Amino acid sequence: xxxxxxxxxxxxxxxxxxxxxxxxxxxxxxxxxxxxxxxxxxxxxxxxxxxxxxxxxxxxxxxxxxxxxxxxxxxxxxxxxxxxxxx
Length: 87
Description:
By secondary structure, this protein is mainly alpha-helical. It has one domain (8-83). 85% of the residues lie in helices and 0% in strands. The chain has helices spanning 8-68, 71-83. It is rod-shaped. The mean pLDDT is 81.
């Protein structure tokens, strides 16, 4: 025996406490479920944006390499050296 008398008021208080605890537990589970769904929904666009940025950087790097290695770019740079403005 726990030492607390089994009076009707005590029994009712226990029931109310248990119901309140179960209700709080249900709300916390629902918030956690909602939070996980939101986190996934936010993370996916960020991953897609990151992938797009990487592919854009690769595309720009290829373009830069093509420009720097082009014959026109080398001619322009030689002309600039004659004028005194080297890049």
